[in-house]
């Protein structure tokens, strides 16, 4: 606005000085032309025709002077117009250059706006992706916790099943041991019966010798009937024991030895299985303990990652807000410059019209 005011004052000063110069030139022209006008105080001896001729010449000179003044005024007006148009052309070129610069700035700001919008979209996508990652990490943590609980339940069930199998194996081992003890007892009874049969045979032999052989005194036992009954009883018992000795036992020694070997193998297999299960159980317990130890560290890492991603998204969002604010400031400045340019164009047109009108009025007034 100050530039337009200076231009207006400059144009007004130029027009006023040109008008003063024009008036002085016109005054000088009139005064110079008047010196050449013939005098009417001539000799009284001149005829009327001569006087009319001189008057006609003076009138012609006056018309030529008036025409010269008019031509000079028109030329001066054209010069003023040319100067005004020249200044207006320079100012218009400056305005065009400013307009071009503003258009370039507008294009640059538009490009920056599009870039910011693209970055905003990318940032929104990044934020959505980060939120998705946080949700995914949360779901993975929940799934890990559920998996851990399921593992613990499975481990507990497996341990209970192993304990149950171990108790069943112990019961089976105990039952087999009882059967083996029973077989050993039966075998000991059979051996005792065999020994008793041998002892009874010796007794029968001694009794027969005693009853059939006279004593040293040559006297037989008086209680012969009692001895006979005893001999009969022993004979029957000896027969029974002989039958038991000759009869096939219910369980042979080979079967007993085989059962003992099977029992030993079963005991050894059960010990190996128990050792393997205990080692597997110990490994699972160590793995579970290791996971328990690593769980706080993994949870901390997941939380730190989520916090870092959230922090990055907040920083990017703040940067986007800052760039958006700067863009709005540039846009407001551009709008202000456009409005200022429009006002300058209007003021320039009004000033040029006013100067032209005033110059014309001044020329007419000066001529009058």
Total DSSP E strands: 0
Based on secondary structure, the structural category is mainly alpha
Distance between the termini: 37 Å
How is the biggest beta sheet arranged? none
Rg, nearest Å: 72 Å
pLDDT < 50 runs, ≥5 residues = 1-16, 22-44, 213-223
Series of H and E elements: HHHH
Strand content: under 5%
CA-based shape: rod-shaped
Biased composition (Basic and acidic residues): 262-274
Coiled coil: 159-193
Biased composition (Polar residues): 27-44
Region (Disordered): 27-49, 262-284
Structure description:
- This protein has about 375 residues and is mainly alpha-helical.
- The chain has helices at about 1-35, 50-210, 225-245, 255-365.
- About 5% of the residues are buried.
Secondary-structure blueprint of this entry?
Elements: H1 2-35, H2 48-212, H3 224-246, H4 253-367
Coiled coil: 159-193
Region (Disordered): 27-49, 262-284
Biased composition (Polar residues): 27-44
């Amino acid at each position: 606005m100050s530039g337009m005011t200076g231009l207006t004052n400059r144009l007004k000063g130029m027009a006023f000085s040109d008008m003063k110069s024009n008036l002085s030139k016109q005054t000088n022209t009139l005064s110079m032309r008047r010196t050449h006008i013939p005098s009417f105080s001539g000799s009284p001896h001149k005829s009327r025709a001569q006087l009319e001729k001189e008057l006609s010449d003076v009138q012609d000179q006056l018309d030529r002077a008036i025409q010269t003044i008019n031509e000079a005024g028109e030329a001066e007006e054209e010069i003023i117009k040319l100067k005004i148009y020249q200044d207006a052309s320079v100012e218009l070129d400056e305005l065009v250059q400013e307009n071009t610069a503003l258009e370039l700035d507008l294009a640059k700001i538009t490009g920056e706006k599009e870039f910011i919008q693209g970055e905003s979209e990318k940032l929104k996508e990044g934020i959505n992706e980060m939120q998705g990652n946080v949700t995914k990490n949360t779901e993975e943590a929940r799934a890990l916790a559920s998996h851990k609980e399921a593992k613990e339940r499975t481990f507990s069930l497996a341990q209970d099943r192993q304990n149950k199998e171990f108790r069943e194996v112990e019961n089976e081992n105990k039952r087999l041991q009882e059967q083996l003890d029973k077989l050993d007892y039966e075998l000991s009874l059979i051996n005792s019966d065999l020994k008793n049969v041998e002892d009874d045979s010796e007794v029968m032999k001694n009794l027969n010798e005693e009853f059939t052989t006279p004593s040293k005194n040559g006297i037989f036992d008086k209680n012969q009937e009692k001895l006979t009954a005893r001999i009969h009883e022993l004979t029957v018992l000896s027969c029974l024991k002989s039958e038991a000795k000759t009869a096939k036992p219910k369980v042979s020694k080979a079967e007993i030895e085989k059962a003992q070997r099977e029992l030993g193998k079963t005991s050894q297999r059960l010990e190996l299985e128990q050792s393997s299960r205990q080692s597997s159980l110990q490994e699972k317990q160590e793995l579970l303990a290791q996971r328990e130890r690593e769980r706080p560290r993994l949870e901390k890492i997941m939380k730190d990652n989520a916090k870092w991603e959230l922090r990055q998204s907040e920083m990017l969002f703040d940067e986007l807000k800052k760039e958006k604010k700067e863009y709005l400031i540039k846009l407001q400045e551009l709008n202000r410059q456009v409005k200022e340019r429009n006002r300058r164009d209007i003021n320039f047109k009004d000033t040029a019209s006013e100067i032209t009108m005033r110059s014309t009025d001044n020329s007419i007034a000066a001529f009058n």
